[in-house]
Amino acid sequence: MYLNKVFLFGNLTRDPELRALPSGAQVANFGLATNRVYKDKQGAKQETTEFHNIVAFGRQAEVIGQYCKKGKAIFVEGRLQTRSWEDKGSGQKKYRTEIVVENFQFGDSAGRGSTGPSQASKQKEEQPAPKDEEEIKYPDEEINPEDIPF
Asked: For bias kind Basic and acidic residues, which ranges apply (predicted)?
C-alpha cells in the first residue's frame, strides 16, 4: 500500500487566484506559510518558515476564493503532485510541486493561526458559567443548510 497524504495548518501568503478551466470547473491557486519552532544546539529558540503551493478545484476552489484572503489561517488536507512543463524561452524542463486540496477547514477569523486564542475563546473565558437552574436559550429560527458556505 502507498500513501500520499499532506496535512498543513498555516496562513495564506497571498489572496487566492481563482480561474476557470476549459471544462468550466474552477481552480484556485494560493500560497501557504507554515512555521516551525525549535531549539538549536546552543539551546536558542529558532523559527523557520516553509512556503507551500496549494491548488484546489471545483466547489472547494470557489469557497476558498470567496472567503480566504492573505494572512487568513487555514487547515489543508491533500496530496502532493508534481507538474512539469517545458519553458518556452529557454527550452528547459521546469517542475512545480503542489499540494492538491482534498479537504480543508478555515482557521480563526483573525488569521492569526495558532499564535494566540481567538476572540471567541476570550469571550467564553470572560463569561461566567451558567448555573444549573439556568436554561440554555437556542435561537428560534431554523438553520438553512443552503446558508452554509461549504
From this structure: 122-140
Read off the pTM. 0.68
Beta bridge partners of 8: 76
How many separate domains does the chain show? 1
Helix (H, G, I), strand (E, B) or coil at 7: strand
Digit-coded pLDDT (tens) for 102-123:
999 998 755 454 444 444 444 4
CATH number of the structural domain spanning residue 13: 2.40.50.140
HSE-CB at 75 with a 13 A cutoff on CA atoms is 8
Amino acid at 85: W
What's the pLDDT at 135? 64
DSSP string, 37-104: EEE-TTS-EEEEEEEEEEEEEHHHHHHHHHH--TT-EEEEEEEEEEEEEE-TTT--EEEEEEEEEEEE
